[in-house]
Amino acid sequence: MSVNRTEGRAAWLAKAGFADTAAAERELDGPLLSGIATESGLVAALGATADPDLGLRGLSRLLEALAPGSDRDRLVAELAADTPHRRRLLAVLGFSSALADHLCRHPAHWLDLAHLDPAVRPDAAALRRTMLEAVGADPAARVPLAVGDHQDLLDALRTAYRRHVASLAALDLGDGLDVAAVAAELADLAGATLEAALAVARAELPPSAPLCRLAVIAMGKAGGRELNYASDVDVVFVAEPPVRPPAGSGDDGDTDDTGWLTTATTLATAVMRNCSVYTAEGTVWPVDAALRPEGKAGPLVRTVASHVAYYHDWAKTWEFQALLKARPVAGDAELGAAYVDAVMPMVWDAASRDGFVDDVHAMRRRVEDHIRPAEADRQLKLGPGGLRDVEFAVQLLQLVHGRADPTLRDANTLAALAMLTKGGYVGREDGAVLDAAYRFLRTFEHRIQLRGLRRTHVVPDSDEQLRILARSLGKKQPAELDEIWHQQAREVRRLHEKLFYRPLLSAVARLPGDEARLSPEAALTRLEALGYADPAGALRHIEALTTGVSRRAAIQRTLLPVLLGWFADAPEPDTGLAGFRKVSDALGTTPWYLRLLRDDGAAAERMARVLASGRYATELLLRAPEAVAMLGDDAELRPRERKPLEKEVLSGVQRHDDPVAAIGVVRAMRRRELFRVTVADLAADAPIEEVGEALTVIAEVTLSGALAAAVRAVEATRGAPLPTRVGVVAMGRLGGREMGYASDADVLYVHTPYPDEDESEAANAALAVANEMTRLLSLPSPEPSLTIDAALRPEGRQGPLVRTLASYAAYYDRWGEVWERQALLRAAPCCGDAELLRRFQALIDPLRWPSGGLTDAQVREVRRVKARVESERLPRGADPSMHLKLGPGGLADVEWCAQLLQLRHAWKVPELRTTSTPGALEAATAAGLLAPSDRTVLLAAWRQASAIRNTTVLVTGRPSDMLPKDPRTLAAVSQVLGYAAGQSTVFVDDYHRAARQARAVVERIFYDDSRL
């Protein structure tokens, strides 16, 4: 940049990024810079740094520190050209005051920056060699020993360490190194520095000191090769005598007969002091050994055996979490490896400890609780959405799943996250978001620390410091940095809560270690122990689900050990596993399916319970596999109301001219909604009345859709609109809103011709609609069918299927019998012409609520008909006590009892004018017609019998009015209804007791002539 003579120099410098333009002018006019500052582009290069003022001051100081002559001349020449070297040097001087101080104190080190290659960085061995040579030790020696004056060695250690940090920072700031590579190199440098500090410590020992073996184990970020620029270095010291006692001697190696342990403790203490003490060259970093057994209260040095004994008997959950990052970095490499080999099996078994997941959760909360309130909103590390959120989530997932999956056993957070993502334990999108957020937060943290090489994780609140940090990260304004930071923090917190509190983790953690990832042998043994009826068949399902290297197989290998237990807790584990395989085959390639089960333990457990409760839900799910999605949301399990469902169905029907396609829309809705109700019934223990209401709504909407499709089909055939209004009247359980899973749809068809329409033609059209409805709903289909039954119409099956209002009125007036009036107690509008249905209801109300009630003869007729129904409809050879509907105390007993009370008293008790059996019993009790204790007995029996009928369908997929005879089916039905395994006889006894009590009430209420 050259000076524009038409604008002031101060404005030019301000535009370049300098804050103190007057000071900048003085520096640029000084004898060292005046010759190159203006035309060389140096001012522009300084303006590109994060802090141009600091960079200019540092550059002047560096030039002053160089001796006049070749060194200073070379630097001037470098500054005059636009080279990577100049960019890196200025990036350091223009951001880190601490590294600028170091370069000015050791001006020759600026030459290091001239030979940097971001593609070629020293590895751990090269750094070890450099640091040992800095203290005069032979890197090739088996036990390196520093040579020189102790104080000089400490200075040399610090100088060599800071020299390398300056080179690394130059690449980091000037070239934008990957933060993971920077952190790994800093960790390797820390290991090399500890090795050099140990060499210095050995030089301090007196010649007579007993020999020992000492290994330094890095923990925390140093162990995970993700160290910061300024950080404590966490370590554990392990020592052994130079020659182990003979095997079987009984000596655990912790005795101090020869003083070797004293030597080891002296060396460990000296290592810590050599790194942390301040000298003229400053300090390196504190060495923290607080993660050792018993913390600061425990001995600084222990043997491997002593460590193992402590971790076996006394260690807390957090200590195993800390050990996850243990890595030998200095001292006796063989001893360090032996330590890691000894403790790591305990680390990967820690998740099976009682309350492990809860302990980790509690520890994270304690960390947050100890944040200083004044720093809570500026904490990059410990606060919500900070680095610890990522690290705790990753470590918890590692510890839970890593015992069974060795690929997850990486101490590095980003590497472990990558393997968790690759293995399917974390979703791809979630893994990518967390990776990017963690890299950003670590880079931000590095910049904050690099400024003064000061250990901090708090974002400064100074506007000027934020401006400099923003510029170092390529952002123009602090507000831009702040927005990105908080956006990343929100994403981290969201995913932390999703992963860290994933319910499935607790379930996986509770599995015995050898079951977390099942081999075929272990799987077969576990299947037998869990009670699978066909372990070999179940094993074939498992192998089909988990074989291969696909992400789908990996996720299912994680899910299945837990699902197998959940299946086994349900009545039909074999059915559940087989159903899971079928659903997974249908949906396994759908991205959200396995993600839902992995991330939502409640959904996975709910699915396992539903699938292993019987065939009905599994068959529904196979026909509508996308319904799995509703398992993850409690709100989705609430049955839907009729109005929105009907709107959806009628809209779908209108889109199809082909009636078969139109009824397909109706059936799709019915499959989905039946599954919704089934899940609510099985997993949420919905009351029987709620189940009946929900199933009734589904049936009503199904009939409404079928009617709409049938009308369109008949009108298309006729080539004209219908000449009559058509209505469908609900009867029986449909009208009572008490539908079961296998209930038929009892209906009456009513129509009334439009004015001036031919009555015969209208009747034919209405009949065609009714027949088309029946045809459409009878088409072959794999899902449970809804059968239309119009047998309750006048004259039964011998009478016309469809009648006009006038025909119904004439029939009931002349021929209507008591049982038909009784059937009309449950008549309710279902679908079709609303006005016609209202008029039909007005027609039948006087018939079913007869003024004055029933005569004595009519009461006796009702009893006679009931007896006839029981004798004629009870299956030949059936045990009446096992029949849920017609047996003593069964559904018919309760319903006929309620209906007799309605027929006799509804004319004067309006509350009895209901189609609901429980509603009628409640109204009768409120009116003093039924004792509360009798109502309780009747309702209990009715609910129990209704629940058994429904549950039998859910278990077997087939309707039945009998208590199951098959022991396996009986056991499954009883378990679904809440009885423990092996309590099926208790279940049967409970039913019979309730039925006997109900029968006693019925005999008093229904058959007592004194009540006439």
Automatic annotation (TrEMBL):
Ranges of residues in domain Glutamate-ammonia ligase adenylyltransferase repeated: 88-338, 605-841
Family of this protein: Belongs to the GlnE family.
Domain of life: Bacteria
Name of this protein: Bifunctional glutamine synthetase adenylyltransferase/adenylyl-removing enzyme
Annotated spans, Adenylyl removase: 1-504
Function: Involved in the regulation of glutamine synthetase GlnA, a key enzyme in the process to assimilate ammonia. When cellular nitrogen levels are high, the C-terminal adenylyl transferase (AT) inactivates GlnA by covalent transfer of an adenylyl group from ATP to specific tyrosine residue of GlnA, thus reducing its activity. Conversely, when nitrogen levels are low, the N-terminal adenylyl removase (AR) activates GlnA by removing the adenylyl group by phosphorolysis, increasing its activity.
GO BP, sorted A to Z: regulation of glutamine family amino acid metabolic process
GO MF terms held by the record: [glutamate-ammonia-ligase] adenylyltransferase activity; [glutamine synthetase]-adenylyl-L-tyrosine phosphorylase activity; ATP binding; magnesium ion binding
Reaction(s) this enzyme catalyzes, per UniProt: [glutamine synthetase]-L-tyrosine + ATP = [glutamine synthetase]-O(4)-(5'-adenylyl)-L-tyrosine + diphosphate; [glutamine synthetase]-O(4)-(5'-adenylyl)-L-tyrosine + phosphate = [glutamine synthetase]-L-tyrosine + ADP
E.C. number: 2.7.7.89, 2.7.7.42
GO cellular component: cytosol
Record keyword Transferase present: yes
Pfam families documented for this protein: GlnD_UR_UTase, GlnE
Keyword tags: ATP-binding, Magnesium, Multifunctional enzyme, Nucleotide-binding, Nucleotidyltransferase, Transferase
Location of the region described as Adenylyl transferase in the Swiss-Prot/TrEMBL record: 512-1012
Membrane-crossing segments per the record: none
Names of the cofactor(s): Mg(2+)
Domain PII-uridylyltransferase/Glutamine-synthetase adenylyltransferase: 362-500, 866-1005
